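Hey, can you fold this one?
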Amino acid sequence: IMRGVSTKYLQNYSNWFVAVERAKKEKSSPEKVGRQLLKRYQAWDLFTNIEAHYKSFIQAYSERTYRCPVKRSWKSQNWNSGVIQVSAAF
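Sure. Predicted structure:
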């Protein structure tokens, strides 16, 4: 059971678990795993905009109101705004 885990981060945890399990199964070297992770060039943009994704999800699919946003930002946020539109379609 995951205690103290925010639901908006569950997809990130799940993706990380899958990546780690694949690396174990394939017996990949740490260098190969690192290269595979770095191939996801849009990962940083998705991570830094997770609050926007969460807000749009709550507004579209929940009766609850969106409250208590995280008040942090990064200088490199929105460097690839096309990723946001693509991921919002899913």
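The two ends are 27 Å apart (CA to CA). Let me know if you want another pass with a different chain boundary.
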